[in-house]
Amino acid sequence: xxxxxxxxxxxxxxxxxxxxxxxxxxxxxxxxxxxxxxxxxxxxxxxxxxxxxxxxxxxxxxxxxxxxxxxxxxxxxxxxxxxxxxxxxxxxxxxxxxxxxxxxxxxxxxxxxxxxxxxxxxxxxxxxxxxxxxxxxxxxxxxxxxxxxxxxxxxxxxxxxxxxxxxxxxxxxxxxxxxxxxxxxxxxxxxxxxxxxxxxxxxxxxxxxxxxxxxxxxxxxxxxxxxxxxxxxxxxxxxxxxxxxxxxxxxxxxxxxxxxxxxxxxxxxxxxxxxxxxxxxxxxxxxxxxxxxxxxxxxxxxxxxxxxxxxxxxxxxxxxxxxxxxxxxxxxxxxx
Length: 336
Hints:
It holds the Pfam family Exo_endo_phos. This is Endonuclease/exonuclease/phosphatase domain-containing protein. Keywords: Membrane, Transmembrane, Transmembrane helix. Residues 125-326 form the Endonuclease/exonuclease/phosphatase domain. By secondary structure, the chain is an alpha+beta fold. It has nine helices and 13 strands. The protein has two domains: 30-108, no CATH class; 116-335, Endonuclease/exonuclease/phosphatase (Deoxyribonuclease I, Chain A, 4-Layer Sandwich). The protein has helices spanning 30-48, 60-66, 74-85, 88-93, 95-105, 135-143, 160-167, 240-255, 277-280; strands at 119-127, 149-153, 173-177, 180-184, 188-193, 208-215, 218-226, 231-233, 236-238, 261-266, 304-309, 312-318, 329-335. The strands form three sheets. Strands 3-4-2-1-13-12 form a six-stranded mixed β-sheet, with no helix packed on it. A five-stranded mixed β-sheet has the order 5-6-7-10-11, with no helix packed on it. The longest helix has 19 residues, at 30-48.
């Protein structure tokens, strides 16, 4: 719409031609606003349909899913750009990625749910690091959270006695297989090594165990697992060994005869990562809490997981740093 003012001629206002265009404020330029809107739509699409991102080349899909919540940072960045460009169309488009992020992760931000007559356990999961300089102090810090179960990974032969001694007064039952261990307030039964070693890894690799725990509310199966590490390389996201180990772990959970299963472990992946789908498709993830656990110095991802079958992981949070490069996580597992 053209505006005439001051009799300065057609299309003149104060000596300057002004045009108001739908979706733009006066003085805004058209191009950048639509570019920002397109970026907002793309962000919303990736958040919503991240599983459609192919894994064939460099396992790009899994790499994206390892840091998927951080894609939400695009929203405030695009918001600032839209305000600077004074683009109404970009502001409207930003509603889509904001809603997509809230739909996927907003529930994790909600307050912890109060228990409603359910029964359950408090559990701690921690990769203690094989270079931890203070095993006894780490054990004391974990016990300070008063959990019923404590799962540890990267146990070394030299550090194991320190963990065992520090935890023994409160946790009289424990089991260790290879480099993973479980400490419990309740008696442990049917303890066995969990075979999750992928092909291509040499002998002596033992990073999984299964144990029954006789709780006041019945028997549960507890799995402790440490899946192979992943790496970002020039060729892409190297997660093949982790994915194969996850398939073996998922098969073990599927074959578990005990109804209630709790899995504690460093899975070297987030619950959004499709590489862990053989496990996460069979178990429930935490309902509340982000609990970013790695690296301890600046956590960007939760690769330390607490998952459950025939039970709910009501909430999860991190504990203060220990001598490890991971933060411990503590979770509440409930059932009726």
